[in-house]
Write a structure and sequence with these properties.
By secondary structure, the chain is mainly beta. It has strands at about 5, 15-20, 25-35, 40-45, 50-60, 65-69. Helix content is about 0%, strand content about 65%. A six-stranded antiparallel beta sheet has the order 1-2-3-4-5-6, with no helix packed on it. It is globular and about 30 Å long.
């Protein structure tokens, strides 16, 4: 199971703060893009070490998927 830490005020998720990748916690430096589909919410993020990831939260299953871009 993929783990993403988020900030949420009015709705979940609003802003990814960190993600776990290969047993390592990576903090999000910036959000490059975000979108919404009928299935959920997606983000492209850059971590502090410069890697880019696509994060997608599937609302029906309440699960995150994390892919390195």
């Amino acid at each position: 199971m993929e783990v993403v830490e988020c900030r949420s005020e009015f709705a979940y998720p609003e802003r990814p703060l960190a993600l776990w990748w290969q047993e390592q916690r990576l903090e999000v430096r910036e959000i490059l893009a975000q979108w919404r589909t009928p299935e959920g919410k997606g983000f492209w993020v850059r971590t502090w070490d410069g890697r880019v990831f696509e994060l997608f939260y599937a609302e029906l299953s309440e699960r995150w998927s994390v892919t390195q871009v």
